[in-house]
């Protein structure tokens, strides 16, 4: 670095600051809370956190006016690269038809027919929608291309928006091929084309998608190509997916709706994070995962949106928090921590989801005195400002 000094900004008058800093847990609990706080941002990083009365001077001063500031949400599970609309499918489901994974194939047809420019502008719109609601880090999966060309270009589109890109060629077996032939394609030419654009590899391990043995083979091939594994498992039925994730030591396994006692024990002993996606249960009218049981068993729990056109088309982490509190018996503090610090851990990141010196300056100013309002005022837009890597990217005039 060296050379010209970076611009510094002090955000002062923070009535309640969520730091998620473990060093502040003794006084501030799980969220490392500080009251009457200030944060100094230097360039793209946090330079100082502490009592407002002690805040050093800075080039720019922002007064939070007694409102709450939280770390930006880390949404560790989304499927933003797609084309087309499935609202009719949602309407049918809400009027009595059960959800099956078959609708994915409809999105695949529309995605293949879209141009790169159309896919890019659609992802840009969704990422902006997320940012306006306080999400500053997002993972984006492929999985609606299901051909060598369309998976690779889906990931190239996603890479323009995040480093956390995930190859999900193993989303569903496309029509007109066998699952054996398709697994060979996914682990062969498709993986080779996708790997340069991806950090992660994922498999939809479920009845009607890929079984445990296929998931194991696909994850192994990905690992051999330098990708890291994650898994969709136990969304619709009991099965061996969660235990496979734990056995392989994956950083996270996502959905975890139908869990046996053995699954919970495996999660607790492996340290694999259970990423819960309650917007899916809300949008498919399925029972919610047992977040309380997981937490009480010592499992680390993250929350993510699973934003996708079929089973859950919300981009709102605040909605996920409200559902986790109301429907899954997480405390408001546990839910916010799961949507920020543990979401970051589910991406094996420690530079986001925490507000402490040296961490990314990803902050959200709430139009509320406390983070509790995220669950207490469901459906209300509470984001008054967002800084991403130190830059103000959202500003509400309220
Ligand atoms: Zn998903």
UniProtKB/TrEMBL annotation:
<dbReference type="InterPro" id="IPR032466">
    <property type="entry name" value="Metal_Hydrolase"/>
</dbReference>
<keyword id="KW-0963">Cytoplasm</keyword>
<feature type="binding site">
    <location>
        <position position="77"/>
    </location>
    <ligand>
        <name>Zn(2+)</name>
    </ligand>
</feature>
<feature type="binding site">
    <location>
        <position position="144"/>
    </location>
    <ligand>
        <name>N-formimidoyl-L-glutamate</name>
    </ligand>
</feature>
<feature type="binding site">
    <location>
        <position position="306"/>
    </location>
    <ligand>
        <name>Zn(2+)</name>
    </ligand>
</feature>
<feature type="binding site">
    <location>
        <position position="306"/>
    </location>
    <ligand>
        <name>Fe(3+)</name>
    </ligand>
</feature>
<dbReference type="Pfam" id="PF01979">
    <property type="entry name" value="Amidohydro_1"/>
</dbReference>
<keyword id="KW-0378">Hydrolase</keyword>
<dbReference type="InterPro" id="IPR006680">
    <property type="entry name" value="Amidohydro-rel"/>
</dbReference>
<feature type="binding site">
    <location>
        <position position="311"/>
    </location>
    <ligand>
        <name>4-imidazolone-5-propanoate</name>
    </ligand>
</feature>
<dbReference type="GO" id="GO:0005737">
    <property type="term" value="C:cytoplasm"/>
</dbReference>
<keyword id="KW-0408">Iron</keyword>
<feature type="binding site">
    <location>
        <position position="79"/>
    </location>
    <ligand>
        <name>Fe(3+)</name>
    </ligand>
</feature>
<dbReference type="GO" id="GO:0008270">
    <property type="term" value="F:zinc ion binding"/>
</dbReference>
<feature type="binding site">
    <location>
        <position position="171"/>
    </location>
    <ligand>
        <name>4-imidazolone-5-propanoate</name>
    </ligand>
</feature>
<comment type="similarity">
    <text>Belongs to the metallo-dependent hydrolases superfamily. HutI family.</text>
</comment>
<feature type="binding site">
    <location>
        <position position="235"/>
    </location>
    <ligand>
        <name>4-imidazolone-5-propanoate</name>
    </ligand>
</feature>
<dbReference type="InterPro" id="IPR005920">
    <property type="entry name" value="HutI"/>
</dbReference>
<dbReference type="GO" id="GO:0019556">
    <property type="term" value="P:L-histidine catabolic process to glutamate and formamide"/>
</dbReference>
<feature type="binding site">
    <location>
        <position position="86"/>
    </location>
    <ligand>
        <name>4-imidazolone-5-propanoate</name>
    </ligand>
</feature>
<dbReference type="GO" id="GO:0005506">
    <property type="term" value="F:iron ion binding"/>
</dbReference>
<dbReference type="GO" id="GO:0050480">
    <property type="term" value="F:imidazolonepropionase activity"/>
</dbReference>
<protein>
    <recommendedName>
        <fullName>Imidazolonepropionase</fullName>
        <ecNumber>3.5.2.7</ecNumber>
    </recommendedName>
</protein>
<feature type="binding site">
    <location>
        <position position="310"/>
    </location>
    <ligand>
        <name>N-formimidoyl-L-glutamate</name>
    </ligand>
</feature>
<feature type="binding site">
    <location>
        <position position="77"/>
    </location>
    <ligand>
        <name>Fe(3+)</name>
    </ligand>
</feature>
<keyword id="KW-0479">Metal-binding</keyword>
<feature type="binding site">
    <location>
        <position position="308"/>
    </location>
    <ligand>
        <name>N-formimidoyl-L-glutamate</name>
    </ligand>
</feature>
<dbReference type="InterPro" id="IPR011059">
    <property type="entry name" value="Metal-dep_hydrolase_composite"/>
</dbReference>
<keyword id="KW-0862">Zinc</keyword>
<feature type="binding site">
    <location>
        <position position="232"/>
    </location>
    <ligand>
        <name>Fe(3+)</name>
    </ligand>
</feature>
<comment type="function">
    <text>Catalyzes the hydrolytic cleavage of the carbon-nitrogen bond in imidazolone-5-propanoate to yield N-formimidoyl-L-glutamate. It is the third step in the universal histidine degradation pathway.</text>
</comment>
<comment type="pathway">
    <text>Amino-acid degradation; L-histidine degradation into L-glutamate; N-formimidoyl-L-glutamate from L-histidine: step 3/3.</text>
</comment>
<dbReference type="GO" id="GO:0019557">
    <property type="term" value="P:L-histidine catabolic process to glutamate and formate"/>
</dbReference>
<keyword id="KW-0369">Histidine metabolism</keyword>
<feature type="domain" description="Amidohydrolase-related">
    <location>
        <begin position="69"/>
        <end position="388"/>
    </location>
</feature>
<feature type="binding site">
    <location>
        <position position="144"/>
    </location>
    <ligand>
        <name>4-imidazolone-5-propanoate</name>
    </ligand>
</feature>
<feature type="binding site">
    <location>
        <position position="232"/>
    </location>
    <ligand>
        <name>Zn(2+)</name>
    </ligand>
</feature>
<feature type="binding site">
    <location>
        <position position="79"/>
    </location>
    <ligand>
        <name>Zn(2+)</name>
    </ligand>
</feature>
């Amino acid at each position: 670095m060296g050379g010209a000094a970076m611009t510094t900004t002090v955000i002062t008058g923070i009535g309640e600051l969520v730091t998620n800093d473990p060093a502040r847990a003794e006084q501030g609990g799980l969220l490392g809370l500080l009251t009457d706080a200030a944060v100094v941002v230097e360039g793209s990083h946090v330079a100082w956190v502490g009592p407002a009365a002690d805040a050093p001077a800075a080039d720019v001063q922002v007064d939070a006016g007694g409102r709450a500031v939280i770390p930006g949400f880390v949404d560790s599970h989304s499927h933003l690269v797609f084309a087309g609309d499935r609202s009719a499918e949602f309407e049918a489901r809400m009027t009595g038809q059960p959800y099956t994974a078959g609708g994915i194939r409809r999105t695949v047809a529309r995605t293949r027919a879209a141009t790169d420019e159309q896919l890019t502008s659609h992802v840009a719109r969704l990422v902006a929608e997320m940012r306006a609601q306080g999400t500053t880090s997002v993972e984006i999966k492929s999985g609606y291309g299901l051909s060598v060309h369309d998976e690779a270009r889906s990931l190239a589109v996603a890479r323009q928006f995040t480093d956390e890109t995930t190859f999900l060629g193993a989303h569903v077996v496309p029509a007109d091929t066998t699952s054996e032939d398709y697994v060979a394609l996914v682990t062969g030419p498709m993986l080779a084309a996708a790997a340069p654009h991806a950090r992660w590899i994922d498999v939809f391990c479920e009845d009607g998608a890929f079984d445990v043995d296929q998931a194991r083979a696909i994850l192994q091939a990905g690992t051999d190509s330098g990708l890291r594994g994650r898994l969709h498992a136990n969304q619709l039925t009991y099965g061996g997916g969660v235990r496979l994730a734990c056995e392989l030591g994956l950083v996270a396994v996502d959905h975890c709706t139908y869990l046996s006692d053995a699954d919970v024990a495996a999660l607790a002993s492996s340290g694999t994070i259970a990423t819960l996606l309650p917007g899916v249960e809300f949008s498919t009218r399925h029972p919610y995962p047992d977040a309380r049981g997981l937490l009480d068993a010592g499992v680390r729990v993250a929350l993510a949106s699973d934003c996708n056109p079929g089973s859950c088309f919300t981009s709102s982490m605040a909605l996920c928090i409200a559902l986790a509190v109301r429907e899954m018996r997480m405390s408001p503090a546990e839910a916010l921590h799961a949507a920020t610090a543990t979401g970051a851990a589910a991406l094996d990141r420690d530079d986001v989801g925490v507000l402490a010196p040296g961490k990314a300056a990803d902050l959200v100013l709430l139009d509320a005195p406390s983070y509790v309002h995220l669950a207490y005022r469901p459906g209300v837009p509470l984001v008054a400002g967002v800084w991403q890597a130190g830059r103000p990217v959202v500003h509400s005039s309220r």
